[in-house]
Every structure is written in C-alpha cells, then in structure tokens.
Amino acid sequence: MSKYLDLSVLEIHRLYQEKKLTPKVLLEEVFERIEKRKSLNCFITLNKEEAMKEALRLENEEVGGILWGIPIALKDNIVTKDLRTTCASKMLENFIPIYDATVVQKIKDEGLLIVGKVNMDEFAMGSTSETSYFKAPKNPWNEEYITGGSSGGSAACVAARITPLALGSDTGGSIRQPASYTGLVGMKPTYGRVSRYGLVAFASSLDQIGPMTRNVFENAALLNVIAGRDEKDLTSAVQEKEDFTRLIGKDIHTLKIGIPSYWISDVVTQEVKEVFNHVIELLKEEGNQVEIVDISYLEQAVPLYQIIAMAEASSNLARFDGIRYGYRTLEAENVDMLYEKTRSEGFGEEVKRRIMVGSSLLSSEKAKIYYDKALSIRKDMRKSFLDCFSQYDLLLAPTTTSAAYKLGTSLSDPLKSFMDDVLVIPVNMAGLPSLNLPAGFNQDHLPIGIQIIAAPFEEAKIYQLASFLEKKLNLDLEGGHIDE
Amino acid sequence: MSKYEATIGIEVHAEIKSQSKIFSNAQNSYGKMANSSCTVVDLGYPGALPTINQEVIYQGIRACHLLHSTITEKMHFDRKNYFYPDNPKNYQITQNRTPIGRGGYLQIKINNEVKKIELEEMHLEEDTCKSVHKGRMSLLDFNRAGVPLIEIVTKPCMHSKEEAVLYLEKLRETLFYGDISDCKIEEGSMRCEANVSIKEVGAKTLGVKCEIKNIGSIRNVGIAIEKEIQRQIELLENHETIKEQTRRFDDKLEDTVLMRYKETGNDYRYFPEPDIPFVVLTDEMIDHALSSLQLTPDERREIYKSKGIQEINIEKLIANRTLSDYLNTYLDTELDFVIASNLLLGDILSYLHKNFIQLEQTKLTKEKFLDLVLKIKNGDLSNKNVKDILEDVLSTDASVSEIMQQKNIQNIKDSSVVIDIIQKVVTENPESVKDYQEGKDRAVKYLMGQVMKEAKGSINPKLASELLLEFLKNTSN
After folding, report:
1. Residue B2's pLDDT band (boundaries 50, 70, 90)?
2. Are A98 and B45 a contacting pair at CB < 8 A?
3. How far, in Å, CA of A27 to CA of A33, rounded?
4. pLDDT at A484
5. Which of the residues B271, B273, B276 would you substitute to probe the A interface, choosing the one with the greatest number of A C-beta atoms within 10 Å?
6. I need a labelling partner for B33 at 20 to 30 A (CA). Which of A198, A212, A447, B156 fits?
7. Claim to verify: residue B261 and residue B322 sit in the same structural domain
C-alpha cells in the first residue's frame, strides 16, 4: 500500500509536477484510510463520487498552486452546494445547500479536493464534540479521549493523517483547543481575515474560519487560499493580499514576547506549565526577550464571552423553524406548535440551553445590564491587548489548561467545557489572530500545545515564530496515525 | 366632543424606491411572479449574510432632509427578534438605537393656519414576506422579503382626523416628489397605522392608547380615527376602562375591529446587528444624496404663485407630477406660465386622457410648446384655433405655423380689418345696437358672438371686444 499521504504537501506537489503521482491515486489512499479509521467517527458525509470526478478532471489540467490536488476535509458548518451540511444537528440532518460558502468557492478554484464534511459539536456549541447528533469523534492518539471541539472532526481527520488539511471554525477556541489536544497546527485568523459567508453562524461577532494542518508551512499555505475581503461579508476586512509563508524559516533572536500573567496562574495544570516553560527557556536561549504582562479583564473573559456568544446564538438560530428548510415536526396544529415541536425535537440539549440563556440575556432590561455591558468591557479588553502589542511583538500562552481528557467527563458539568476554554476565549473577544502549536506531551503521551497571539492582521509574524519553534522542538507528531 | 380631547400619532411604512433590496442584490420589484426575485439572503438561508445597498442609505438621507430630521452621522442596524412565518430569519434587521433621522416636522395648513406636525424619528428596515392564505394553506412570497422600508413616526401631536389626513397627504406628496417612494397605498408601498387615545380636556396625562393597523387609504385613516375616538368616548362615558390593544380597519364595516390586546410589553430582544458594521454618513455622502433632489411640492407652489398661476391650477399641477415636471423644464424661458398651465391642464390633458397616452409620447417639442403659448399670448391663436390645431400639434412633426397654414388659420390682428367686420355686423344688427343703447348688456355678448362668427374665429377676442365697445360708444354719441 502506498503512503503518499505521509509526505509533505510540498513533496506531493513535486510528484504531481514530475507526473509521478496523480490526484486520483492520492484520493484513493484517503478513502482507504477513512475506511480503516472508521472508529474515529470523523466524517458525517463523504463526498467520494464528486471528489473522484474532480480528481479525474484535474488530471487533464496543468498542475496549479502548491495545494492543487491536495485533499481537504471541511467542518460541517461550512455550507457546500449539493453536499449535505448538517452542523452535526438533527435540525439539518437532510439539509442540502444550494450555494457554496466563499471559502469553499476559493478552495474549489484552487483545485483542492473536498473529501467530505467532518464531525463537530452541534452548531459548534461545545468543547469536546460530544454534543454532535452523530456522536462524538475520537482522539486518534487514544480513542478513549476527546478530540476537543467544536472542530473535533477536523482535528481527528488531520491528526490521523487521513487528509493533510482541514478547515475548522473558531468562536471561542474551537480550532486551537482541538488542535492542542490532537497535536496539530491550528490557526484562528484575525476577525475579518476570512469571509464568513456560508459559515452557519453561531456567534457572528466572534466566528472565524481557519486552517488545521500537520505543520506550520501547510497552515500558512491554506490561509493564503482562503483569506481575503469578500463583498458578500461586510465584516470581512479590506487588506492587501499577502503571502503568509513569507517569513517562515527566518531565524528569531531579538523578539520581545509577552506572557499574560493570568494565563500562567493556577488555572493551568502542572503538565501544561512544564511544556510551556520549556518553550520559554528555548526562546530565551536564542536571545529573545520574554516578559510577564498584564491584560485587563482576562479573568472575566469566560462569562463575558458566554453573554455575547449566547445572545447572538439565540438570534442566529431562530431561523431554524421548520418552515423553509431542515427538520420539521411531523404534526402541528398551528404555527406556534410547529415552532415549538420542531425546535424541541430538532435541537440537542446544549443548543437549547444556550438559546434559552441567550434569549433571556437579551430580554428587555437585561440587555442593558448584560449584553451592552459585555460589549463595552470587550472593547476595553481589546484595547488592553492592543496597548500590549505596542510594546511586544507577540504574546505567548498555553492553549489549554490540560491535555485531552476522557470522553464523557464533561457531560455531567455544562460549565466544565467553558472553563477549559478560559485561555482561548479572550483572543476571540479581542478579534486577534492566534495559532496553536504542538509543544510537547504529557505523561500519557497526549499532545500539549501553546498559542502564539499577534496584533490584528499580523498572522505572518505568528507563522515566523511558530515555524522557528517547530524546528527547534522537532516533535514526533505521528502518534495519531496508525502505521501498518 | 367638548369634554374630551383626542391625541393621535401616526406611523407610516413606505417602501423605498431602489434597484435592489436593502440587504441583498435581488431586484426590488412589485408584481413579479411569486418567489422569482429573491436570493439566499432573502430566504434567511443558513450562512447567508446581509450586505448594504448604498442607494437605500441615500434615500434615507433624502427623506431626513425633506422632513427636516437630524441625520444620525454614525448609525448601525439592530435585530428585532420575533417568530412569524413571514419573517424569514425570525429576526428583522431594523434600526432601534440609531435611527437614521431624529426629530423633524412637516407643515400642514388647517383652517388657514400653518401647523407643524412634529416627528419622533425615522428609520430604515427590511420588509417581510407576503403571506397568502388559501384554505388551510399559507403561501409565502419572498419577493417582498428584504424590500427596503422607511418607517416615519410622528409625535403624539395631532388632535383630529383632519390633521391626520392632511399630514398623510403632505407626507405622501413629499416622499413621492423626493423619489423616495411610490406611496401607492393600494399596492402596499405606503402603510399607515394610527395610535389614538382620548383624555378629558386639560388632563395632564395621555389616555390609554389603541393602535389601528391595516388601513387601506388616507380617507379610511380619517374614518378609522373618527370611529375610534367615538368608541373610546362611549367606553369612558359608560365608565368602562379602555384596554391597550391593536385594532384593524375593516373596509366593509368602515369601522375598526379588535385584533389583539397588548400583552405585557412586546419583548423584541433588540441588539446591534453584528453582521453589519457601523455606517458613517459623511458630508460627501449627504451632498451626493441631496444633489439629485428635485424641487419639493412647496417650492413648486411658491414658484407657480410668483408666475401668477391661480391657486386651483397650482394644486392641479402638484397633483399631476408629470405635468408639473414638464412645466418646470421651462423655468428659465420666457414662457407665460398662466397660459401654459391653462393649456396643459385643459386641452392637452384631455387629449392625453382621450388617447390614453403620456405627454412624452406626443410630438410636442420644447420649441413647439413655446411657440404655441406665445401665439396664444400674442393673439395669433384664439381658444377655438387651439382646439382646432392641437391634435396636429401633438401628433405630427409639423410646426405650429405650418399647421396654421394648412388649416388656413390666420388671425386678424390688423385693427382696420377688425373694424370692417364690426361695421358689417353692427349694420346688420340694428336691433341689438338699440338694445345696447338702452343698457342691455347681453346685446354686447350677442354682437361679439356675431363678430367672431363673421371672422370664423380667427380674430383675437380681446382685441375684438375692445374695438367693438369703442365702436358702439362712438356710434351712440
């Protein structure tokens, strides 16, 4: 059996150019691996026929950019024309969209091969992917453990080396946290860097699509494909086109790096601290300056996030009413009952919980006390971050408080997953770019990651430091891949 | 109603004229096949996001200007959350905290006095779907979903149905002339709601307010208000309490009917729309929007008055915008506006009506119209002449002079020729001359008629009557 999928994207690209490999052969390998790793429960919908057709079509085409003919998996909240998009919910179990998200269009234009739609928390609400209507995906490093979430299927797929690339979405850590738990590079770009058009909205002011990959270079290459202003998304930023790989490989010796004090306090477990401290030592050895900094309101970030995210979610998910698309209850005597039964039956528990809390938070007087207040503190938090970036090139922090835990642990405690996200959430609140980089392992040989955070639109700088550390750390990250 | 005083506020939703919808690029059209003019955005599809139609913002700026409202320089949109089948996203994108315009007024004339009707605010929002109910089925037409609306809310500052009706007529005229809306109530492009309460004269607090929706014409707004005031007075007279409620106007009953009682305050869970960033209305945008504004109805009234046009013709012109616009193309010419307006509103309008055509479909050029009016003014054409040649003027390429030649119309302007005719008529009608001398006025009318007849109408009546009177005076001395 061939193992082209174990090669880097650059190596595959070279084989394509030398006509030693065709997209079809690579794709067949992908579907073999999908079959072999079925127990991971990565995929909700496969796109085998269409992907094969596309692979054959590519064979009559000139080899394009470096991601031409590379297989990719898409989180199932990114809308794909004629390909079922469920958001891992019963509500959209049979929903086949009539248009492509902007990122999907870009991926197709670039000649990537969409292999299928991957598992996630229902409507991206959760941190373990266990709220999926299609049951949780499993961590390829150890199938008793969670993948993290909500982009758990994307993480499992790449960590198991089924596809080199996946797209996730990050509202409150949903790319970085599963990337940390599965030993991947996962980037949440600056809010506005990537079009949200066609991303089924959870919390509009926080949602952002981003790449999840095996290494730093491939991550930057995928961001190159999906980034850019989109006239269809007014919140997408007007920025000049840039090459996010351009600083990769450049040595780093004179950086000023800040470490927010709260993020290395007792909220973080010892196993994470050890890995994190090792990285700090390494940076110092290379001559970089590392200092502890203070950022305002970090300790309040989780409740503030909950207010904003749930309030927006309660409104964004109102459209799922059984009238135009999606699940509809079998019997209803009137419209009110249609709404009530459709939504009670179509949504899972966590989604309903968040809709209820969000609706309550926006009710009459409460909106001023909670939502308005949260927005205003959020502004201050962002300002505090930006002030910090006037003195420091980058910020560094652990991504998660611990390594992945066992499946089923958090189900009894709805707040646990929020508290786990205490380190990733502030970045969404401030709209900053942040990348998870695998930095070590715990005693059970489960991956632990760190996140590199930059000022808005400084993704290239993040990739520079990430690639530098990637090379220095030189970790074996193949633990999720069963080699026969 | 001496004991009671009514307080009335009016809310108007007007569909804004624009190429495309407010938050999508689907066409903004009326009367198209159901669901042929909508995109995933209008359908409230998962993942779809709103964009902003700049044209609609410009229309909002124009409306603010025409209604003297203060423009909100930095504005955003809000979500109004409520479940209803005609509401595709189950939230409506509207403006709650930063309406595009605040305050403002319109002036009406009531009992020969000018009164300012003060406005609370105006805001931009999207329309909902249209529901059509067929038996047990309800059908939805998404062509209307996302059509831009402007909602204009007055303060509770009116006290009679007459004021309300005059306000609505003035508002319709203003929006129509500003090219902001068609304001066709029957097609639903202008919708009126009235809030009515009554209190005892002199009481400091307002009474309980009832809202009347679904009123199909301005006239019916008047009727609805009148009926509602009566209803409320009767309740109070019978010592019953008025419950806050929404009523609708029933065309057949010509009365209001209860729709629902107001429950403990509607909770729309408003919050700023996160998909649309703040919109900053710059001076450049405002200048751009206002540069295309046409003359307002009141400005036109002033101009027409200064040109000597009669009040009745002025109002007729304002009521017929095509003719008013047409007449205004002559503002920088020497045209006699009195003659021109008579001509337009009289013979030309009846010609257009008779032939079911518009003015621009005729062959009337600017030169021809100027020439025609001038010839009337100079006495080259009499009223009768005009009637004889108008069809040819409007339907052929020939000039006025050519047509006059063809029809052999030559107006006699030479006094000596006119006097010859008068001489002949007087000689042939000694009885009438005698009557005149005995002071019978109708004799002059008769003689004048004979003169015109003799001249086959091709004589300036003014000149003829002057000369006739002079002749008669001379002969009787």
Report:
1. low
2. yes
3. 10
4. 57
5. B271
6. A198
7. no
**Residues in chain B closer than 8 A to A79 (CB atoms):** 46-47
A205 part of contact set with chain B, CB < 8 Å: yes
Residues B96 and B236 in one domain: yes
User: What distance in Å separates the CA atoms of residue A243 and residue A233, rounded to the nearest whole number?
Assistant: 22
Confidence of residue B459 (pLDDT cuts 50, 70, 90): confident
Rounded to two decimals, the ipTM of the complex is 0.96
> Are B207 and B330 part of one and the same domain?
no
pLDDT reading at A172 higher than 70: yes
Model confidence, pTM = 0.91
Structure tokens at B326: 């047409």
User: Omega of the bond prior to A410 within 30 degrees of 0, cis?
Assistant: no
Examine the residue annotation and report whether A75 is marked as an active-site residue of this protein.
Answer: yes
Tell me the domains of chain A and their CATH numbers: 4-255+404-480 (3.90.1300.10)
Interchain contact, A232 vs B49, CB within 8 Å: yes
Domains held by chain B: number: 3
| Residues of chain B with C-beta less than 8 angstroms from the C-beta of A359 | 81, 269
Kindly state the percentage of chain A with pLDDT values over 70.
Answer: 98
Confidence at B477, pLDDT banded by 50, 70, 90: low
Nearest CB neighbour to B271, from listed A233, A335, A371: A371
pLDDT band for position A1 (50/70/90)? low
Neighbours of B236 (CB within 10 A): 18
* B290 located within any domain: no
Task: Name the nearest CA neighbour of A166 among A132, A93, A115.
Answer: A115
With an 8 Å Cβ cutoff, is A364 touching chain B? Answer: yes
B269 to A233: CB separation less than 8 angstroms, yes or no: no
**CB–CB of B44 and A359 under 8 A?**
no
Of the CA atoms within 13 Å of residue B314, those in its CB half-sphere come to 15
